[in-house]
Design brief:
The protein is built from 15 helices and 20 strands. The protein has about 450 residues and is α/β, with parallel strands linked by helices.
Length: about 450
């Protein structure tokens, strides 16, 4: 497909096909302005102005498009997405108004994952013109970040192991002149014992590691972004079922979000000192796999009894959150495909958000709501902390009862975040089981735009 920067272009008066936007309420008045033949064409396509409806109408030697939207005063991110999916390739402009927020969905609607199979869909680009040239680069950057998450998550585990995530971080470091550091092997075992223990059963070419990237002026406020990078999750010795394992290539979705957010931060030049941390492993099964009942050491000095080897994401995050806390960041955000409980509670579209402070949640929810990426807050109840108690260690990685799984996982992570640090945890699905306009089935970004716009508000570029 065409690159995103070709899909939105500055309007300099180029020839373009008009797109008229209507609602069900305004459609009748719009239709009255048209000749009888064009009204008949719309009727023949059963177009009545409903949201996401599209129609093409002949107009002399050419034609124009009509799209149904819900709110003409508030063009959301995906209101033009259906048009971008179904219109023929060509150049378009809105007959009135500016796309602005809708640029995002125009681009993501044309995303295709073609690494292994050529798309059967029409890939001739649909180009949208805008007179607001100053907004184009930002829209392209966000769409590219979302598409990056999709690409990384859609890639199968054999081609998206820890080394591949490291290569992606190296690409970012080279692009933005950031410092990168990778710890693996014997040093990983000594310094990050939980990351090593979870990943040690994997094949050598999928060896565990922690990837760290630092960027920005050291005098600026320090912000840590952490992403869970389990590139495939068999469940370990507490092995998943076949159906449970089928989508586990997406268990590095937190790492994909963190990498994409880092890309957005550096590209925008936000005034912060970025510390990106990606603990990445394959949770495999072999003779040296960690076991239920084992007690693991941690970077923080706590001991963790393993109640379930399939609760491995919180283990590798624990060591990474500890490392991030050692530099006393002003804010820490982590992304993780952590619990099925969050999906049962909220479904696939809403990322669960847990924070220590109300203001952190309020800021992220407001940013997400304004950019069609709203998270839903779940609690971190003090009364449930005792569910992580262990008879032989400082804590257990999996509680024995079936309740509040997402919140209890969040409480486990909270034990590894330094005291007094403002912290937000996204339990995100990173997968869309059903396509929607502008959002393909498969790898998906949830919470990414919310986090970026919250950071953009707090730490604006100069």
């Amino acid at each position: 497909m065409s690159t995103p920067d070709a899909l939105i272009q500055a309007d300099r008066g180029q020839d373009a096909i008009a797109i008229h936007l209507v609602t069900q309420e305004s459609f009748a008045d719009f239709a009255k302005t048209l000749p009888a033949g064009q009204r008949a064409a719309l009727a023949g396509q059963k177009f009545d102005g409903g949201a996401s409806q599209t129609a093409i109408v002949s107009d002399g030697d050419g034609w124009f498009a009509v799209g149904g939207i819900a709110d003409p005063e508030n063009l959301g991110s995906y209101c033009l997405a259906k048009l971008a999916e179904v219109l023929p390739g060509g150049t378009y402009r809105l007959a009135s108004g500016e796309p602005l927020a809708a640029m995002h969905g125009w681009i993501t609607a044309q995303y295709r994952f073609e690494r292994y199979k050529k798309s059967e869909k029409d890939t001739e680009p649909r180009i949208l013109l805008s007179k607001q040239a100053k907004h184009i680069d930002a829209a392209i950057a966000e769409a590219e970040a979302v598409n990056l998450v999709c690409d990384l998550v859609n890639t199968p585990a054999e081609d998206m192991g820890p080394a591949a995530l490291e290569a992606e971080a190296e690409r970012l470091a080279k692009t933005y002149k950031a410092d990168i550091n990778v710890v693996k092997g014997d040093r990983l075992e000594q310094e990050y014992p939980m990351i090593h223990a979870v990943g040690r059963a994997a094949a050598r070419h999928h060896a565990p590691r922690i990837i760290q990237l630092e960027w920005g002026d050291p005098s600026h406020p320090r912000v840590a972004i952490v992403g869970k990078g389990v590139t495939f999750d068999s469940g370990g010795l507490d092995v998943k079922s076949a159906i449970g394992m089928k989508l586990m290539k997406k268990d590095m979705g937190g790492a994909a979000h963190a990498l994409a957010l880092a890309d957005l931060i550096m590209r925008a030049g936000l005034k912060l000192r970025l510390h990106l941390l990606i603990p990445t492993v394959e949770n495999a099964i072999a003779g040296n796999a960690f076991r239920p009942g084992d007690v693991l050491a941690t970077r923080k000095g706590l001991t963790v009894e393993i109640g379930n080897t399939d609760a491995e994401g919180r283990l590798i995050l624990g060591d990474a959150l500890t490392r991030a806390s050692e530099d006393d960041p002003e804010l820490m955000i982590d992304f993780a495909t952590l619990t099925g409980a969050a999906r049962i509670a909220l479904g696939p579209d809403l990322p669960a958000l847990m924070t220590r402070q109300d203001k952190t949640a309020d800021d992220l929810i407001a940013a997400g709501r304004a950019h069609d990426d709203e998270p839903w807050r779940l609690p971190l109840p003090d009364g449930y902390r005792e569910w992580l108690n262990s008879d032989i260690a400082d804590l257990n990685n999996a509680h024995a009862n079936p309740y509040a799984g997402a919140s209890v996982a969040g409480l486990f992570l909270d034990r590894f975040v330094g005291d007094g640090i403002e912290w937000a945890h996204f339990d995100t699905f990173a997968w869309r089981p059903f396509a929607k306009p502008g959002r393909q089935k498969g790898g998906a970004a949830y919470g990414l735009r919310a986090a970026f716009h919250m950071l953009k508000t707090r730490y604006p570029a100069s």
